[in-house]
Amino acid sequence: MFTFVVRPKIEREVAPMPDAFEVNRRNALLLAAGGVAGTMAPRAAAAQGSTMEATSDTHPLAPGWRRFMIGDAEVTVILDGIRPGEGPFPTFGEDQSQETVGALMEENFLPAQRFANFFQPVVIRLGEELILVDTGMGANGRANGMGLLTQRMGAAGLKPGDVTLVVLTHLHGDHIGGLMEGGVPVFSNARYAVGRTEMEFWTSDDAKNGPRAENAKAVEATVVPLQDKTTLLGDGDEVVPGMTARAAFGHTPGMMAFEVSSAGERLFLMADTFSHFIVSFQRPDWQVRFDQDKTAAAETRRRFAGMLADAKVPLLGYHLPFPGLGYVERDGDAFRFVPETYQLLADG
């Protein structure tokens, strides 16, 4: 039978949305508290008789982490933080009008001009490896209630010093910000892996002297010092047994998705391929402001969405609503995101 965790009443209540989108701690927490999947115990937690989230957190209404199993691989999604604000236009649907994007939001029961963005690194225990995929905002995000990765790892029973491998999907600041703290590597015993094309771009003269120079400077400060411990990956390369790199170019020149396989089950870590759970799937061809090659990014979205839908394989999206876990279904010429509910729970 399934095992359920009963939460205190306050965590099940839905607070009314204020008329003005007040960007404060309480509203950010309530946005995070709405995930259905966060109310159920996953396989590992059920086996241990524990809950899936911290009992004490700086954001007490927000589930700080979620753990589940893919075959024999233990997967823990860490909520590094939430950024509420105006949107999703023009970040999503940059080539559309605000009215068109707003209408799509309202069709899907969302506010036309309000948006919450989630930041979610993932820790995978795979064989003898403890793998961290992306590192969140780090110290630079803490003034805004983000950069909570290591704190919430601790609440989930995970220590930075136990991480054996840090895998970077791409080198934007919200994915590499947690690598260093005070100029010292946070994951002191880890080795590192990143796409070869991605690393070559961000260390190139074009990146250092062009419109993305600030991000290139961050790469120089946080990623380059680790290069002696870094493996450069290509499409189809085995990262470790059970984890394979898949080219997902477009958002950045060399972004990688990662396929995790264990005991006949699979999971795709899709990074920023799908960054909005409505727009990215229902309008995959709409332009996204932060996609560097917008045509390639749209092609990547369609390619992976079609594969995931046909294979019925779950995915994790770094910016999707916590815990970013779900499935893709075809819907005419487009797709829909189907959040995970109890598909991955223990069945006995």
Give a quick account of the main beta sheet: strands, pairing sense, barrel closure. Answer: 7 strands, mixed
Q: Identify low-pLDDT runs.
A: 1-56
> Cα distance, first to last residue?
5 Å
Overall shape: it is globular
Q: Roughly how many Å is the radius of gyration?
A: 19 Å
Number of strand segments: 18
Strand order of the largest sheet: 1-2-5-6-7-10-11
Quick tags:
7-stranded mixed beta sheet, 10 helices, 348 residues, single chain, alpha+beta, 18 strands, globular, Metallo-beta-lactamase, Chain A
Compose a concise summary of this entry.
The protein has 348 residues and is an alpha+beta fold.
What do you see in this structure?
β12 (238-240) and β13 (243-247) form a beta hairpin. The chain contains 10 helices and 18 strands. Residues 1-56 have low confidence and may be disordered. It has 348 residues and is of the alpha+beta class. It has one domain (9-339): Ribonuclease Z/Hydroxyacylglutathione hydrolase-like (Metallo-beta-lactamase, Chain A), CATH 3.60.15.
Give the arrangement of secondary structure elements.
Layout lengths: L24 H8 L10 H6 L16 E6 L2 E6 L2 E6 L11 H10 L6 E6 L2 E5 L2 E5 L15 H7 L9 E4 L4 H4 L3 E2 L2 E2 L5 E5 H7 L2 H5 L3 H10 L7 E4 L4 E3 L2 E5 L8 E7 L2 E5 L9 H4 L11 H18 L3 E2 L8 E7 L2 E6 L9
Parallel strand pairs: 6-7, 7-10, 10-11, 15-16
Antiparallel strand pairs: 1-2, 2-5, 3-4, 5-6, 8-9, 12-13, 13-14, 14-15, 16-17, 17-18
